[in-house]
Amino acid sequence: MIRNVAARVAWCLAMGVITAPGVALAQNSAPATKPAGPSAQPAAARAYKPNIADEDWGFLADQTQRRDFFDPVKYISFMDGRSYLTLGGEVRIRPEGLRLRGAPGEDNTVDNYVFQRYLFATDWHMGKRLRLYGELQSGLLNGKLASPRPTDENVADVHQAFFEYHSPRGADRQFLLRVGRQEMTIGSSRLISASQGLNVKRSFDGVVGGYQVGRWQAEGGAARLVAVGGGAFDDASTTAQEFWGGSVRRSGVVFPGGAAGVYYLGVDRRESTYTQGLGAEQRHTVGGKFAGVWRAWEFDYDLVGQWGEFAGAPARGWGLSAENSVRVRTWPLRPRFTLRVNAASGDRDAADPRLQSFNPLFPGNSYSGLVGLLGPTNLTDVTPAVQLLAPHRIVFVVEVPNYFRTSERDGIYNIELRPLPVPATNPGRYVGSNPAFVAVWNATTHLSLTGVITRFIPGRFTEGSFIQHGFGFYSTSFTYRF
Question: The pTM is what?
Answer without folding.
Answer: 0.87
